[in-house]
Amino acid sequence: MKYRFLIMLLLSAVLISTAQETDTLSVKKEEIMVVKDISIIKEPYDPLTPAKAAFYSAVLPGLGQAYNEKYWKIPIIYAGIAGGIYLHIQNDKDYDRFRNAYKSRLAGLTDDEFYGDGTSPLISTDRLVDAQKTAQRNKDLSIVISLVFYLVNIIDANVDAHLRQYNVNDDLTLRPNFEIDPINSQANYGLSLKLNLK
Questions:
Q1: What's the pTM value of the predicted model, to 2 decimals?
Q2: 10 Å Cβ neighbour count for 101?
Q3: Is 11's pLDDT higher than 80?
Q4: Ordered alpha helix ranges (H), the chain
Q5: Tens of pLDDT along 116-133?
Q6: SS3 of 107, please?
Q7: Which of 196, 186, 189 is nearest to 175 (CA)?
């Protein structure tokens, strides 16, 4: 017991003697708080932006997509328009070949490229008429393809400019809901709509 008292006394003396002194060095602590506010980051609504994008795309295909910063769409637009023009040129050449062969047959000549060795025709005259009609239809279709890509280019620029300014936040949410009824153990399906008006 004597030793316990002595150990406690010695331990309390050590704790009191090792008290810390206050530090004279002071450090300033600066905190920077970054607040992300969507209204600051988002550009203000401009009702003419879709019209500008559509006009730019009408003047030069792909310029409206560049205005909307959707650069990956520009090669697709030019590939579609160029593909339609290429098909038109190719079908026009085929139409001219079939037309010239048909005219030479009507004149009684046997020197066209579809006649063969000169004794019997490889392609009949009726088939040349059908080939002309097919080539003409394909020429018209290729023009329509180019025009469709041109119009889709304008519409895409307009819609993309509209959606770029669209407000997407948590004030309006639509969520599916799935719960199991504990009484009869059947599934209950639902849909919840949250609308916050400020």
A1: 0.61
A2: 22
A3: no
A4: 2-17, 38-41, 49-59, 63-67, 74-106, 125-164
A5: 776 777 888 889 899 999
A6: coil
A7: 189
